[in-house]
């Protein structure tokens, strides 16, 4: 049974300060996430307890205790200090889900620097854009991804240190060094940076409709919200074996793939391999996973795989399962109850919120398809066009949250105007639309902008279009989200070719691979439609709305600003 108790009682009595009390934090003392996820667990007698169970693509298994997590993260922090990386400087992490990723993340925070996790499948353009914007002075990476870093390094004058965690024996270039946390001299004690609650901690990049990706800056006191939501929503307890399938290149993989579980001293599993149904079920069986946090896209793929595959594995260790990243369709909740004997509990939050905001709690009645109710301490509503709360049940509006809360982002890096624009009439405007039913449950309606939600990851149409325009054959481009039964949305590109080029399957494949290389597999168009021209306003702005309506069957709406043919 969950420790959460009555939702109404918790909501009425809630105060964020209870997190600090439970974590043993007192005002005026350092609040460093790196220490609270590693050193504190050793101090409370969990040094020999398992922190991480890691399985490689090839099936190799490694296990690390909290004592080892402390030592290896100390080594990473000490290495940054040796290199002269100062508190507040941004340090990128660009590697697959290997143990060094987790050691370096905590080590960066211990050093006082700001961790910038990057998705390992990013292409050169996506990588350069984020590193350039963040002004990163150092990056942890691997042999596998080093070639991408080398190709863009001359465009990054602020980048002083390229740290290769598995580079032993290789020929190094300028500004490169080799460092392995496990092979480095043991650092028993490291004087971590005395972070205050508002000290910057993590810079996560998210996508927008226009312009470059935006860096959402978080602070060390985000720990309060990540700790409590991991405890009450994910229901993590001593003795649990927890598995979050998210990559730490995205916010779920840090908030709930690192900080949440380890702040509670819980063992977590990391599988380096991607989605393979048999590997996933085998992971749950092999390691006795008790709490599982995954994405609706993966859940829908598991549904498609069918019940026969499930029956080949012993999943009896599972006691609580949750989903995140995009709306979970009602059929998935019903299916999981029938097949696993447990319903998936959907959770809603964003890169900007830093932690779960609206959710289905353990023990709470689940309405399949609903986002659930706000977490205690979170005031959520839907707003009308004048940014006033809508009182009528079932009427959709703009989903909004009342600031502040501990894990709320404090800035968009280098973009104060964009940050200010997210707040209206005392509310944070999420960019999602929802409605609230008569029982106080929230229901997702859709996005208010053109951002594409591909398998739970937000893809900027601007980034896709910019990459497309670099292709030699393309004169104009527009990218929209096309509904997809598994991925929620996929990228569809509308393309007008330059004179001398004609549509063909080979050209289509060339364009797709071009975007994949420059951005990522998630941003690659799954469908291309060649057109003579794109619909534009009289001022020349491409009207994605019309193209999106064509794909979804929505009303076209006002076209009075459309340019004449």
Brief characterization of the structure:
With 565 residues, the chain is α/β, with parallel strands linked by helices.
Describe the protein:
With 565 residues, the protein is an alpha/beta fold. It folds into two domains: 7-432, ANL, N-terminal domain (Rossmann fold), CATH 3.40.50.12780; 452-552, ANL, C-terminal domain (GMP Synthetase, Chain A, domain 3, 2-Layer Sandwich). 31% of the residues lie in helices and 23% in strands. Strands 2-1-11-10-12-13-14-15-16 form a nine-stranded mixed β-sheet, with helices on both faces. The chain has a five-stranded parallel β-sheet with strand order 4-3-5-6-7, sandwiched between helices. Strand 10, helix 10 and strand 11 (267-271) form a beta-alpha-beta unit. Mean pLDDT is 92; it is low at 558-562.
Show the helix and strand layout.
Layout: H1 7-13, H2 17-23, H3 33-37, H4 39-46, E1 50-55, E2 61-65, H5 66-83, E3 90-94, H6 99-111, E4 114-117, H7 124-134, E5 138-141, H8 143-152, E6 161-164, E7 176-178, E8 200-206, E9 214-219, H9 222-232, E10 241-244, H10 251-263, E11 267-271, H11 277-287, E12 291-294, H12 296-305, H13 307-310, E13 320-323, H14 330-340, E14 344-348, E15 358-359, E16 373-374, E17 380-383, E18 397-401, E19 411-412, H15 416-421, E20 423-424, E21 427-436, E22 442-447, E23 452-454, E24 457-459, H16 461-468, E25 474-484, E26 488-497, H17 505-518, E27 527-530, H18 544-552
Parallel strand pairs: 1-11, 3-4, 3-5, 5-6, 6-7, 10-11, 10-12, 12-13, 13-14, 26-27
Antiparallel strand pairs: 1-2, 8-9, 9-19, 14-15, 15-16, 17-18, 18-21, 20-21, 21-22, 23-24, 25-26
